[in-house]
């Protein structure tokens, strides 16, 4: 809906009222009294918080956008295609996809990692190489038989799926962290070097380098960054820039109780912290929220179909899920540090919810989890902040989501993995 200046002030007041920011509300209404003299100018269509927050998300940030975000064309996952309720039988913690081989890996509280062939051509392979549940799974972008797992036991493991016996599949173990290892990532296929990075609740990031891809797989530690101000919650690689040094690759780090995102520079000889990006639009250091998940805007495909992020004007955008009770998410330009858009999805005071997201391959929308009421996945248009669909089907908290080709995979505490796609009629026409 179009929002006038008076309605914008009313929206802010409604937001403060909902969260009982009474002192702030009183001061705000006094300073902005001119906007509250005519009730007809500040009337809003609904008292529903979701409606208020969606309208707030469409307000300008005070500065003109430096990028143009394409609109959603209506092609996104909106239909539940398949439910897998027999893969673990207990709470499922994470799901990851390797689309080249059409496989999906899952982990659960039973400490196992299971690798499934979606076409049913082979039985699931079961891996038991950790002493505690696995929190993240990643596949190497070039050597797709290599799977990286990180665990609550403080270790990370590199596994070769091409080995027939899962008990003999462990290639390398990393034991450099002192607490939970919450995420592990490989450098993207566009990187000039092979890096492996892990993030931990010991407040550090560890970086490893594989210097001989033609030889045996062996990553060597090239550095530790930290301790940071809080637990490291999420990491992701930044797109390469045309001005980057030949071997340089940059990484973004999200930290609990910190209003900055940290940029690391990785080179074979080591790693260093190069700069920080303030998530506060006014540039202050007030900490009212923490980042809990970050991911980069999808790279644009080249004429050959490969992803190329070096010259994409949208390639520097990062989406940040936060722990704020409003469900706030922020789209930031990592080059300028400016906020491009704010979103308010799944408002809740429950601090134990898992708040994560994944972009649609086009970048025109994204999928967000963190619902407390109906365990729904919200589909949000990136440019406008409007919730264009709500996917319901899970009966307990969703813990993880990922893309698999044009489909969406989700898993959670209802012991299921669900595959979502476009309505069958639309999909068949494409």
Automatic annotation (TrEMBL):
Keywords: Repeat, WD repeat. The keyword Iron-sulfur does not apply. It comes from the Eukaryota. WD repeats lie at residues 391-420. The keyword Repeat applies. PROSITE patterns: WD_REPEATS_2 (PS50082), WD_REPEATS_REGION (PS50294). PANTHER family: F-BOX AND WD REPEAT DOMAIN CONTAINING 7 (PTHR19848:SF8), WD40 REPEAT PROTEIN (PTHR19848). This is WD40 repeat-like protein. It comes from Hesseltinella vesiculosa. The lineage of its organism: Eukaryota, Fungi, Fungi incertae sedis, Mucoromycota, Mucoromycotina.
């Amino acid at each position: 809906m179009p929002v006038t200046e008076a309605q914008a002030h009313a929206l802010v007041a409604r937001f403060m009222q909902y969260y009982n920011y009474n002192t702030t509300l009183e001061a705000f209404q006094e300073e902005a009294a001119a906007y509250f003299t005519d009730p007809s100018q500040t009337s809003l269509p609904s008292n529903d918080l979701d409606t208020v927050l969606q309208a707030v998300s469409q307000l300008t940030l005070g500065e003109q956008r430096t990028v143009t975000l394409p609109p959603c064309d209506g092609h996104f996952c909106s239909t539940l295609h398949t439910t897998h309720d027999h893969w673990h039988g207990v709470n499922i913690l994470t799901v990851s996809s390797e689309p080249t081989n059409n496989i999906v890996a899952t982990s659960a509280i039973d400490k196992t990692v299971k690798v499934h062939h979606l076409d049913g051509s082979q039985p699931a392979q079961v891996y038991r190489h950790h002493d505690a549940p696995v929190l993240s799974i990643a596949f190497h972008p070039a050597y797709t038989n290599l799977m990286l797992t990180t665990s609550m036991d403080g270790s990370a493991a590199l596994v070769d799926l091409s080995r027939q016996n899962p008990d003999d599949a462990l290639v390398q173990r990393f034991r450099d962290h002192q607490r939970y290892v919450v995420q592990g990532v490989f450098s993207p296929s566009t990187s000039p070097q092979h890096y492996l990075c892990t993030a931990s609740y010991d407040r550090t990031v560890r970086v490893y380098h594989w210097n001989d891809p033609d030889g045996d797989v062996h990553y060597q530690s090239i550095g530790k960054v930290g301790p940071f101000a809080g637990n490291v919650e999420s990491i992701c690689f930044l797109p390469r820039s045309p001005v980057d040094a030949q071997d340089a690759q940059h990484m973004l780090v999200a930290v609990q109780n910190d209003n900055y995102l940290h940029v690391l520079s990785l080179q074979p000889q080591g790693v260093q912290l190069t700069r920080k990006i303030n998530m506060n639009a006014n540039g202050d250091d007030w900490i009212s929220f923490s980042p809990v998940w970050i991911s980069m805007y999808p790279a644009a495909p080249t004429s050959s179909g490969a992803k190329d992020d070096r010259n994409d004007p949208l390639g520097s955008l990062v989406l940040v899920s936060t722990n704020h009770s409003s469900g706030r998410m922020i789209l930031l330009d990592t080059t300028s540090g400016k906020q491009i858009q704010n979103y308010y999805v799944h408002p809740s005071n429950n601090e134990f919810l898992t708040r994560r997201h994944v972009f649609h391959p086009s970048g025109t929308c994204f999928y967000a989890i963190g619902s407390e009421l109906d365990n729904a996945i919200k589909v949000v248009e990136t440019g406008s902040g409007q919730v264009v669909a709500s996917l319901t089907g899970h009966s307990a908290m969703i813990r993880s989501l990922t893309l698999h080709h044009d489909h969406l995979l989700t898993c959670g505490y209802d012991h299921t993995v669900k595959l979502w796609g476009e309505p069958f009629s639309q999909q068949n026409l494409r």
